[in-house]
Structures are given as structure tokens and as C-alpha cells.
Amino acid sequence: MTTGRAEPAGVEAREYAETRFRVQPPAHGDDGTRVRMRTGPWLAGPGGIMTVGSLGVVVDDAIGSTILRARLGDQHSVTSQLSLEVVVPPPWPGPELTAHATLLGRDIVGGLAAATVFDGEGRVVAVATGRCRYVPADILPPGGMRPPLPPADHGSLFETLDLAPPAAGPATPAGAIPEQAAPAAAGPALVLPSGPGMQNPHNTVHGGVLLCGSELAVALADPDGPPRTTSIRISFLRPGDGNHPVAYTVSTVHRGRSLAVYQVSAGGPAGRPYTVATVIRER
To answer: The pTM is what?
Structure first.
């Protein structure tokens, strides 16, 4: 999430996850916080369709900014849990999506907020809830945020994430999906490169990027499974090291004809997971 702090003059610009995903700074009002994200090819995943996971950054920023605004004293906040439920599957009309977040409650430890995501026609396309914990403000780098670089001309979500697009393979014939669980993936299903374009101002991997990668890893690990993501629930166990690639490992909890449940673990070179996510997909 972004901090909302002033950018120091004369400091070298850098990328952020927000610039990669075309997420605008939060706008606070009496009725909550609104964060807008431009839509375009930079959000398109497998099949050229915008992915549910690409909502991760805008939703995390909206919820995180709302809880941060309610803090007591000189504190910052970090996301500990985030859930996302799809109301209308993508593709969603633009030119922008808007996440409108409101505070549900907070105490000295942290807070809980909810966000509703609207498409360019004003429809509700997703709803989210998130918990954040308050932490000392000195987790920010010295000097605060550096100015953001404008994004490159990304032609797909794979380019946004600095990934090579997957090779096309033969599709499973209709009706050929077994009722029993599919085998778990052997090794990482996805390795996300490191870099400032995946980070937040703390120089750790942005929580919304970790959510996005979790959903994309499922699509790549089981391309013949149920195609529509309807729910993502992710727990943040520790900060993601922004200086090393993030490896996503997918295991299948259940895989039937109409519904599949996957668990996704994302971690770095130390072998301890940053996040654990449950992704539900339906046919």
C-alpha cells in the first residue's frame, strides 16, 4: 500500500507496484477511501482476459489506506489478511475500476476494512475485506517515498510482472476432468522476478502482487481445471523480500467437474513462506 507522504525533491524516481498496475493515489472522503486503477492490456492474463488477481494492488491499497488513516499516533500499517470475492467475472469495462473502502473497526493493534470494486459502468464486480496491523513508522526507508516512474508500455499481465507468457498446450476435452483431486504441482508453478516494480514503499513485495501471483500460479499449474476464479483468501505471514524472486507452489485440495480448491504458498530463498492463499475456481 502507499503511504500518502510527500515525495522529497531531487530524489531519483523509481517504480512501484502501483505504477506497474496503473493504480492512482488514494482519495479520502467522509464516506471512505476511493482508489482507482486504469484498465488495459497490462492486466490481461491467460487467454488475454483480465485476471481476478490483478485487483490485488488496488484492493490492498484501498483497504490499507483506510486502516492507516484511522491509526493512533505515528504508526504505519501492514496487511495481515485479505479476502476477495468475485461478483461479476472479468472482463470488466473500463476505463477505470474503483475500489471504495470503509473502516469496519480498529483498536490499538490494527483494523478491519471492507472494499467494493466497481467497473466503468458502475456495477459491483468484487467485494473484499482486509485486516491490517499497526507497526512502527520507521519501517519506511530513510527520506520517505521516491517519486514514481511512469509505467512502460506493458502488453499483458505477464509483461507487467516481467514474466514470459506461457506456452500454449493442448486443451483437455470437455467432460474429461476427473472427480478426484489432481496431483499437486512438483516444484514452483511460478517464479516472480524481483524488482522495484513489485514492491511497496517499504521495499518489500507488495501484498497485492503476492495475491495476484497466487491466482496466476493456479491458472498456470492447472490450465484445464475450472476456469473462473470466484474467491481468494490470503494470509500474510512475514514480509516478502523484495531483493529475491518469489516462488509460488500450488497444491490441489479438491478438483471436481464444477469446482476446484487450491492452496498456494509464496516464499523466497530462506524457505519460509511469505503468504498462504486459498484460491477457489469454478466452471
So the answer is: 0.89
